């Protein structure tokens, strides 16, 4: 672990969605944003959400699956 997240470059400007683990409030940000942040504060419940490597991978995998369904 501790590796850089291999985010596909084509996702840099794509809106990706992540749900706050506490309140399920959806957070939508560009792929480039998810690439660099390690944690953020939920606008809805003020929870400080840690976004680790597996969480980021899950976001990108989820986006890929949704994209393939189109
Ligand atoms: Zn929240």
Short account of what is shown:
The chain is of the alpha+beta class. It has one domain. It has two helices and four strands.
Describe the structure.
With 70 residues, the protein is α+β, with helices and mostly antiparallel strands. The protein has one domain. 33% of the residues lie in helices and 23% in strands. The protein starts with 14 loop residues before the first strand and ends with a helix. It binds zinc ion (ZN). The site of zinc ion (ZN) has 8 residues, from loops. The site of zinc ion has 8 residues, from loops.
Question: What's the total number of strands?
Answer: 4
The average pLDDT value, as a whole number, equals 88
Spans of at least 5 consecutive residues whose pLDDT stays below 50 are: none
- Report the structural category: alpha+beta
Helix fraction? Answer: 25-40%
* Ions, cofactors and other bound molecules: zinc ion
Strand content: 15-25%
Rg, please?
A: 12 Å
User: What is the overall number of helices?
Assistant: 2
Question: Gap between N and C termini, in Å?
Answer: 32 Å
Shape: globular
Largest sheet features: 2 strands, antiparallel
Q: How many structurally independent domains?
A: 1
Strand order across the largest sheet: 1-2
């Amino acid at each position: 672990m501790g590796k850089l997240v291999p985010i596909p470059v084509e996702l840099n400007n794509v809106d990706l969605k992540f749900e706050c683990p506490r309140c399920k409030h959806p957070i939508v940000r560009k792929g480039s944003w998810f690439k660099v942040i390690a944690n953020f504060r939920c606008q809805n419940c003020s929870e400080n959400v840690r976004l680790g490597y597996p969480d980021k991978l899950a976001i990108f995998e989820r986006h890929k699956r949704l994209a393939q369904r189109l």
